[in-house]
Amino acid sequence: MNFASDNVTGASAPILDALVQANAGAMPAYGEDPLTASLTARFREVFEHPELAVYPVATGTAANALALAAMVPPYGLCLCHAQAHVTTDECGAPEFFTHGAKLAHLPGTGARIDPGALEAALARLPRSVHRMPAHALSLSQASEAGLVYAPEAVARLSGIARRHGLTVHMDGARLANAVARLGCRPAEITWRAGVDVLSFGASKNGALAAEAIVVFRPDLADSIAYRRKRAGHLLSKGRLLAAQLHAYLADDHWLANASHANRLADRLARGLRAVAGVRLAWPVEANEVFPILPVRLARGLRAGGAVFYDWPTESLAPGESVGEDEVLVRLITAFSTPEAEVDALLALARDSA
Amino acid sequence: MNFASDNVTGASAPILDALVQANAGAMPAYGEDPLTASLTARFREVFEHPELAVYPVATGTAANALALAAMVPPYGLCLCHAQAHVTTDECGAPEFFTHGAKLAHLPGTGARIDPGALEAALARLPRSVHRMPAHALSLSQASEAGLVYAPEAVARLSGIARRHGLTVHMDGARLANAVARLGCRPAEITWRAGVDVLSFGASKNGALAAEAIVVFRPDLADSIAYRRKRAGHLLSKGRLLAAQLHAYLADDHWLANASHANRLADRLARGLRAVAGVRLAWPVEANEVFPILPVRLARGLRAGGAVFYDWPTESLAPGESVGEDEVLVRLITAFSTPEAEVDALLALARDSA
Amino acid sequence: MNFASDNVTGASAPILDALVQANAGAMPAYGEDPLTASLTARFREVFEHPELAVYPVATGTAANALALAAMVPPYGLCLCHAQAHVTTDECGAPEFFTHGAKLAHLPGTGARIDPGALEAALARLPRSVHRMPAHALSLSQASEAGLVYAPEAVARLSGIARRHGLTVHMDGARLANAVARLGCRPAEITWRAGVDVLSFGASKNGALAAEAIVVFRPDLADSIAYRRKRAGHLLSKGRLLAAQLHAYLADDHWLANASHANRLADRLARGLRAVAGVRLAWPVEANEVFPILPVRLARGLRAGGAVFYDWPTESLAPGESVGEDEVLVRLITAFSTPEAEVDALLALARDSA
Amino acid sequence: MNFASDNVTGASAPILDALVQANAGAMPAYGEDPLTASLTARFREVFEHPELAVYPVATGTAANALALAAMVPPYGLCLCHAQAHVTTDECGAPEFFTHGAKLAHLPGTGARIDPGALEAALARLPRSVHRMPAHALSLSQASEAGLVYAPEAVARLSGIARRHGLTVHMDGARLANAVARLGCRPAEITWRAGVDVLSFGASKNGALAAEAIVVFRPDLADSIAYRRKRAGHLLSKGRLLAAQLHAYLADDHWLANASHANRLADRLARGLRAVAGVRLAWPVEANEVFPILPVRLARGLRAGGAVFYDWPTESLAPGESVGEDEVLVRLITAFSTPEAEVDALLALARDSA
Distance (Å, rounded) from C-alpha C232 to C-alpha D227? Predict the structure, then answer.
């Protein structure tokens, strides 16, 4: 009963198969192979964008940090939510790749940026050489706490950003979960809503290690190829990443995987809400569930073999709070989570309550 | 007949099998999995060193640049051969990871550093704040031009470096080929000969994407874990790299692969030398052959389907030169090169001569 | 009536004289001149520390950022107050010089760090490669809002920092004002209280452009000479900085200047408090006064020719607040402020009230 | 008899006077003072360029490195002469300010870039992500060895650079000496000949510490204000730099100073050439003399109190060489060198020969 992360699994069967298939034969090194070459057309199709550029990399940290390095000069600010993965969990990767740019923090329930707070922060920024000027906004879709931005929400934030001259980055480590939840086209919550550069995640949703930087504004793409090589993120055997990404997109495998994970998160949430003393900190909109549990119940679940993390309470909605005998936790479902495992956890919860 | 690089192949069968095996089941993310955990013991065994630390990464560029970042401060110099991969082919990765350190170039035939030149360069360096102080020496084993340093040669260079207060890095992208050629123990040409940090390569010799930074001096290891995460080189699914490295080391698979490649390089060299008008720029000591060919012959080989690169003539021995009608080229054999392919190339050469 | 900053004046007469004197004759360049050479002995005397090292630079930004670069690795955290100059007013200089380290913010009234908050922040920091590890604490003496740390207060914060393995930096842009106010020996609030590296300010208190990085821990000094040269902060004519610093320290000129500024700040505070509707946001402990004024009064002062800045209200004590019709402002006195100018401002205030 | 450097003197009388004058009264801090504000108009006049931007800084290292940071991305190459000051004597300042860009070296007698070598180097650079792409050319006017580029020579090099998409930087630490020697207008050897950004030196020719970054292409100026602040090179009391630069330009003081230094260099060269066994390594075109002396003579000069440096022989013209009993040395004259001192050295030389 491992609900700790969507990174604890291996690759999905179709993706593993694709890897094995792609292993045979000689292919040019360093991304000049035919599998990598055909990725561009594939992504242009999926995102309905005739000019986008794609740069596969092996990790989400690399995708985010390379994207931001192309968007923010060393002396610039990038605004993001105070709980965004880029600022809390990447050991300063954006600071490294941008050569010392700074992440400025915005508030918002469930790690989703509040548009009013963004507007206020940008209005407050003085234009002076003593302060670093804002250059980009980074959104996480889904948010670090499993909330989703609808197309209009993305457009609203992007609109504010653009009026202040910022470019817009989307950390899409869980983009698939958001697209599956919203039932929208990928274009709608990305470039059509004002996103300039997307970190397109696959590793959390079926790949072994594959992400893609998707650049919707050709002028921002210029430096990424050099920066990627220089950062050691151009794999010599490009087929490794390309094969995974092709299989991920084929036959909507990515959306099927995400739908499964989302559905199980719903099932988990529904079941937990029915347990006495349990409430959700905020709604489930992707594949993550954030219940506030009696401490005793959390202990019971862990004793019964369930694995999950405690979660900081800073993302709570105004007015919401966690009592002395309670704890906020995070449960994540993945493409590979069996329904039976969810049901086992729920049974355990009912027993421990 | 692809002799362009040892990167044009996929993974060897045992390594691919290991990948598929390791795919099943839940494992902790970010290198906390049991496969990764057991790598340290495995490398300590192979290198007969009780305290070494191992950091797997996906690319040789990352291994080299992270190693150098731990060894050279932003204001320091790293000495290396003028044709070393770190300085010619990594788009400034060492400069990026070290935050602006400089690579200073040393001469030597076949991209192997001349000890006298190293001694002279270090003697010449003034100690003054106007110049960047030398902090490390980087050797490539085998060299970028396929020459090997015997244990005494490594020890001699390391000795000079140490007397001037430098630490010693070895770029072992083709370490297996060197070990197989020399018939020595891995320890003998690394830490016992004075190497502090090793980039241990596997991708060119059977892995799909796997290298390891091997740190023989515990005090130098301190920063690498943070630097690796920050550079986006800590994979979320650590099993990908660990499974490859375990299979690579198991049953001396790495040495068997390298021996095959070396043997075919010898066969290729022997055959080419017998062709009229062909001579070798320097001996074959690993899996790379550098013949000087009549231009007409090179053209004939390519017309016949052989793939290989021209090579710059700066690495030639003093006195050696390439005539107007000649060209220096590089032919690489890999663990997967069929003997028949070498023989086909040789037949073609004899026909084209 | 310029109370905008202690940077609006030129040099004091003794310092200007020293500059003119030092101009004559040939001296070795790049800090090898006798004036620079004798600075070390002078600072060792003033700080009663037999081993300190001194690096003169022209700006406080350079002093702070070079000091932090020697103390914090690129992947490390430096803790400081959320309103500290290093994090709000230097356009990311620490991020630039440290190559991407991060400043983490602590709260506290009047820009003075609350020890409990420091303790809590350090206790909360997880030891994980996903987070940047804390390496240094930076204190401002006097604080950005003119509060002073007594020797015991410095020692308490340093003690917490050390227990967590951090080194301690002091931004002493207004150290003279603090020493003059506390009536203590310079050693007492610096190295004897646990400070490892000090940015010793002179430009705000009589110099034209001169600061010194004072390193009390020899092992931390190693890299500063190279970093300073590399940052363009080693002046070719070292006499410029050295002459100012010698004159600054001679005959306690620095303390006389600071005492004057402090005394006038007291006079200003006393006078303002007597004006109806005016209160101080926090006590005056150096040369800065932070009154909360009726908006109408602030307008009147400016109409009458007084120059000063509004100040953000984030530094207010818990429970304190600024009303709708009020504004928090900052008034600074300098070594050169005439008493008559203070009195003129007070008369204007009484007239405008 | 100090001929070691043009940095061994203080400020010239008019510049020192200007400093003293500018010291009085309150002025806005951080370059918002009227003296700094009027610098732009002054430089536009002197350089006959209606749109140039000026950024004063205290050191030539800062001027060069900030200029290059605005011109070369972190992954880019800057081409310069192998003996250029930026690459040999600034402890890696360009690498620091550009965040890891690389300086690629060009040959040429007397540290003056050979146009053929530039053309060849640019033609040879492969366009590949494995190599850093060339972004800028840096020329030194006068060269590190005292040679001057005539307007056509600058234009020729700039033309080659531009055809390859590079921008052009001029290190004008001794621009005054070049302008005085060539008798041309400052515009002719700078922007009219294709220079985009100029490091305009004053410290070696009469100022105490003052240089200016002069940007002829407005689009390249965007980032310099932020980079300068971030690097600690925005002085709080801007009058210090502005006063020096105004006095430097007033009444052609800069050219008068340079003409004096040049004239004395000529006198020195003429006198030395007449001494038996002495020849010049290359002509005197600015204020530096590079004689090849019998070792015995060099020793005699030093014994007699003359101060000067030995010089590396790498800049010698092809075919030229320094014999076993000879040494190449550098003698520099400054705005303040008395004619009598030159004559004393010559007398000493004649006595020692």
Answer: 13
